[in-house]
Amino acid sequence: MVSAYFLTPLLLLAGCGGVVAVPQAAVTLEPGVPWEVPVREAWPTEAWPQATPEEVGLDPQALQRLVDYGFRRDGDEVDRKGQRTNALLIVKDGKLVVERYARGYTGDTPMLTWSVSKSMSSTIFGAAVMDGLVDVNQTACHYYEPMCRPGHDAVRVTDLLRMSSGIQWDETYETSPIFSSVMAMLYTRGSHDMPAFVARQPMAFWPGIHWSYSSGDANVGMAVLRGAIGNADRYHAYPWERVFDPIGMKDVTFERDGSGTFVGSSYLYARPPDLARWLWLILNDGTWDGRRILAPGWVRYLRTMAPAYYTTPVSRASREDNPGAWWYVNLGDPERDIAPPWPDFPSDAFGAEGHWGKYLWVIPSWDMVVVRLGDDREYGCAYAWQTDCVKDPNKAFTITLFQKLLAQAVK
């Protein structure tokens, strides 16, 4: 079980040059997941078993409406408008019931996942915890020397995994490239050594009390993992040896920055059927064909709401995103009148999301995993408070409409 002291966040004190210390409770990994994991008759290490929708209890007509919606086009490759789905896979009861591609992509095409890479990186951390290499309650400084400076030395590994390090960060992209921390990290002055660039940024909050989306936290996390593993060759082979190869993920590319650290925020490429295998590992509580891959309790941890979410002022981001440990959950916050962001999905659903239409979900109540990879440059209005969106949800990918159509297919 994960616990924390829920305290009001405190900003930098004017003129003091530091942040106010707020004690945080330790994380305890509680084995098991809050759903029943079925006994599996087959594992898709080599290939996915296939089934018709009827064989796994799905409504074929409703499922076809979902597929038709996902691959509808209202634009072309020049204007980049409308639906731009590249891949859609749905696995139900361990069987592949939908697999479709478009725009020249196939199941053998490794695709850039953008920020889905963070969720994969969180998974790799689960293997490192299993191996006794990392303690999430330990400070980042313990594993990565650039974090050993006043303020930064209080940041724990779990604070990085929950994007609540307190490090000052601007995660804007095309809308504000001049002032964007993430653009500088990925493409300009920070690209040679991304974690070191992040570690040089000032502290804005005491660690653990303020949630703010940060690719910087993810890349410092990968430097922490590098320090924990130690040997560079072992570090560079570790994701394959511990996660990718055991579950049959083939042809994975995981880019590194100029210093050799994995860019855990953004740059993992993988084939869609292999991404479904990864989700299947998570659905099955980090085990694969009788072998435990991730630490007991890790899946429960990554899908537990980040405690800092509850002490961060309500914003549009907090209404759209319920953060776990580099994953997203579907709980909302009734005490602050924040509804679950995915109203047509069960409350136990959780997932990974990436730039330009990458959406992957694990839905335990339905014994289902979903991979939707797109290249969307505009989105339909999914929530009442959105304004910078396409009003007609049928003319651009709209996450809530997609989820509603999927829910209608589940009998």
Detailed description of the structure:
The chain is of the alpha+beta class and 411 residues long. It has one domain (56-409): Beta-lactamase (3-Layer(aba) Sandwich). Helices cover 26% and strands 11% of the residues. It is built from eleven helices and eleven strands. The chain has helices spanning 60-70, 116-130, 157-161, 181-187, 194-199, 215-229, 232-244, 272-283, 298-302, 316-320, 399-409, and strands spanning 85-92, 95-101, 111-112, 253-254, 268-270, 287-288, 291-292, 328-329, 350-354, 358-363, 368-374. The strands form three sheets. The chain has a six-stranded antiparallel beta sheet with strand order 2-1-11-10-9-8, with helices on one face. The chain has a three-stranded antiparallel beta sheet with strand order 3-5-4. α1 runs antiparallel to α11 (399-409) and α2 (116-130) runs parallel beside α6. The longest helix is centred in the first third of the chain and has 15 residues, at 116-130. The protein is globular, with a radius of gyration of 21 Å. Residues 1-17 have low confidence and may be disordered.
